[in-house]
Amino acid sequence: MATIATAGHKTAAFPTSALLAPFRAIGRFMVTLAEASPQMRSLNKLSQLSDEELAAKGVTRESEIRRILGGAAAL
Known about the structure:
Blueprint: H1 16-36, H2 38-48, H3 51-57, H4 61-69
Helix pairs in contact: 2-4
């Protein structure tokens, strides 16, 4: 009967998670900033309205998006 013994080796390689951590933090910060903007809050409120509710107000979803985003809606 053969016995195989393995020795636990720890690699000296630099963990990629440590390298990516600053980029993840910056990404989370940018998302937080975007979500806090008045435009994003208005778009969230708009997304919660149904097309029927918008029609009752006499507006369309597209026109409201253009109104909220202004010139940025053309991008």
